[in-house]
Amino acid sequence: EGRFKYSLLKKPGRYKKYLIILAIFVVIIIALAVFWLWPAWYGNINLQSQLYANKAGGLDYEDFFFLNFWSTNFLFNKTALVGAFTGSILMSIPPERNLLTIIGTKLRFGKPSYLKSMIFWWTFGFILFYFLGLILNSNNGGFAWTLYLIENGEIQLSPNLIFDAFNVIFNINNTDFVTIYIYSNLLVPIVVFIISVIIFRLILNIVRNVYLRRNDYLVMGNVFAIIGLLCGLVFVFIPTMSLDGINVIQILALIFGFFSFTALGVL
Questions:
Q1: C-alpha to C-alpha distance for 267 and 257, rounded to whole angstroms
Q2: Cis amide leading into 112 (omega within 30)
Q3: Is the same domain home to 17 and 86?
Q4: Which residues pair with 92 in a beta bridge?
Q5: How far apart are CA 117 and CA 124, in angstroms?
Q6: Which of 21, 159, 205, 217 has a CA positioned 20 to 30 A from the CA of residue 68?
Q7: Is the pLDDT confidence value at 4 over 70?
Q8: Which of these three, 46, 66, 86, is where a domain ends?
Q9: Could you give the CA distance from residue 99 to residue 12 in angstroms, rounded to a whole number?
Q10: Do residue 141 and residue 32 come from a single domain?
């Protein structure tokens, strides 16, 4: 009885100790953010703003730095939101349950419902894809710059953008560099992101059919689908490459690989 009372009284003290340590850690982080990180970050922006205003004809440096919140220089930005919404939508049509099922099998809480999976992908998944969405701007900031220019009416987004971009390859007299700029900096990152999320879903299907229930037929189908998507991924980059006549002919192999392997994966 004495040992029971001792351990019963000791546990709250131990938890209280951890809570105090956690509280101190949080206070230190907040203090560093308020008194060091924020002044160091914004102080440099303020200094550059004064420099640009005086030496660059009154250029608004903050507008240049944030690009109307498309730039990833600031943690909360529209570019990351594009990734968050794109990823969450793709993982919700239909709701992807394999990841939670694998975790649930390991932790013994079972297979989640479609509603729980939907909630997961629009909460934790949304946060995950928000940070992955920052990768959209990894092309030297071209994604943010392109959307900023479109938003401000500096360049026009054509509905025939894809056809115009591929026309540059097959028509040697076409020198429409604006189309290639928009295509390579806006469309390519979005398509790569979408294909990457779809491949992630297919990989989860493979893990399910290997780990949860053995089904070699479905595993091979998903592998074929991934190969087809990779062919499509390479095809997307073609307008951004320097190609000769032989390379243009080889494009047909990518088209054939995309449709044939994807069809095999679906079947």
A1: 15
A2: no
A3: no
A4: 95
A5: 10
A6: 159
A7: no
A8: 66
A9: 35
A10: no
Provide the residue count of the chain: 267
- For 53-106, the pLDDT digits (tens) are 676 666 777 777 888 889 888 888 999 999 999 999 999 998 888 888 888 877
Residue-range definition of the domain harbouring residue 261: 69-266
Q: pTM of the entire structure?
A: 0.80
What is the C-alpha separation between 174 and 124, in angstroms, rounded?
46
d(CA 152, CA 249): 39
Mapped to the 3 state alphabet, what secondary structure does the chain carry? CHHHHHHHHHHHHHHHHHHHHHHHHHHHHHHHHHHHHHHHHHHHHHHHHHHHHHHCCCCCHHHHHHCCCCCCCCCCCHHHHHHHHHHHHHCECCECCHHHHHHHHHHCCCCCCHHHHHHHHCCHHHHHHHHHHHHHHCCCCHHHHHHHHHHCCCCCCCCCHHHHHHHHHHCCCCCCHHHHHHHHHHHHHHHHHHHHHHHHHHHHHHHHHHHHCCCHHHHHHHHHHHHHHHHHHHHHCHHHCCCCHHHHHHHHHHHHHHHHHHHHHHC
CA distance 39 to 16: 34
pLDDT tens figures, 114-167: 898 999 999 999 999 999 999 999 888 899 999 999 998 888 888 888 888 877
Note the pLDDT tens digit of each residue in 34-43. 777 767 766 7
* CA–CA distance, 181 with 24 (Å, rounded to integer): 50
